[in-house]
Amino acid sequence: MEVDIRLAAERLRQEEATRGAAQLVTPGDTVTGDGGFMRGHGTYKDGENLVASVAGFVRRINRLISVQPLKARYNGEIGDVVIGRVIEVQQKRWKVDTCSRLHSLLMLSSVNLPGGEQRRKTQEDELAMRSYLEEGDLISAEVQNIFSDGSLSLHTRSLKYGKLSQGVVVAVPSNLVLRRKNHFHDLPCGATVILGNNGYIWICATVVGEDGGAGTGGYVQNLERVPLPEREVISRLRNCILALAGSWMMLYDTSILYAFEASSKFQARDLLKPEVMAEAADLCVYCVSCPVCVCDALSRPEVCAARLLQARDLLKPEVMAEVADLTRKRLDLEAAE
């Protein structure tokens, strides 16, 4: 078994990691000296100057200026899709960790019974709560309400929500998940991605057929061993998401799919050598800028001198940064068209 021993990689400079991003400020920095702007979140007035109170990116909406923090706890909004883990079973409710300031609550009256049955919950249902959800279970849910103390009330009344299994969860900063109408995506690579607004992203193999647990609230689960090709796709998607998050790029279905395609233009074991990795990265920059390679790199390998990259290579900081850079360039090309 080969072992790759390397020195600690030099941390990327902040300027390189945030290329193309908004203005970055730290607490105490003057955002603007124009008194005509309104103060938003993360700022305060110091005379005529607007000063940042947190470290983050400056966001301007007309005359409103706010600072979006780099890392912060999730502040839920009604209608958000979240991924959480059950940490406690209480009387008529479950306590769920959703990466917010306080634990969220999932009431027994806010869940679907097995089979999607809609009826009033009885004492027998309360006694059988652990057969529905128990400590350690991962669930997908929607924010139904926000209590006065800031805690969230969840519900899983739709059968697309419920218990999750046979996949992997990835934790990223919640402000990197782009708010969109749909957060459930079946990617053409054969994987399903649930982008939680709270920063938890679920990746699993796409379920085909009505007997595999899709649309059943998680009560019908296929616990057979996941085939190796599907596990490789899941691991590659996980590493691509971490690469995009490491470069502070917004996460949504298009950016993740582009990162997945960009990662496929690298080699396998040869890329464990730094010089080969650098050469393949240069070839991939050419492929992304070439319209032929952008369209046909997967179906016509001969047009791309770089081959396939193993998913584990995407854990290397320099490869993660290169994949994120390729994704950013492709998104810019698409926006220019």
Written overview of the protein:
The chain has 337 residues and is an alpha+beta fold. The chain folds into three domains: 22-69, OB fold (Dihydrolipoamide Acetyltransferase, E2P); 81-226, OB fold (Dihydrolipoamide Acetyltransferase, E2P) (Beta Barrel); 241-336, no CATH class. It has helices spanning 14-17, 123-127, 129-132, 228-246, 253-263, 274-289, 291-296, 317-336; strands at 24-25, 30-32, 38-39, 43-46, 49-52, 56-61, 64-69, 81-90, 93-97, 104-111, 138-146, 152-156, 162-164, 167-171, 184-186, 191-195, 200-205. A five-stranded mixed β-barrel has the order 8-9-10-12-11. A hairpin with a 2-residue loop joins strand 8 (81-90) and strand 9 (93-97). Helix 4 (228-246) packs across helix 5 and helix 4 (228-246) packs across helix 8. The radius of gyration is 23 Å and the shape is globular. The protein starts with 13 loop residues before the first helix and ends with a helix. The model is unreliable at 10-21, 210-214 and 267-308 (pLDDT under 50).
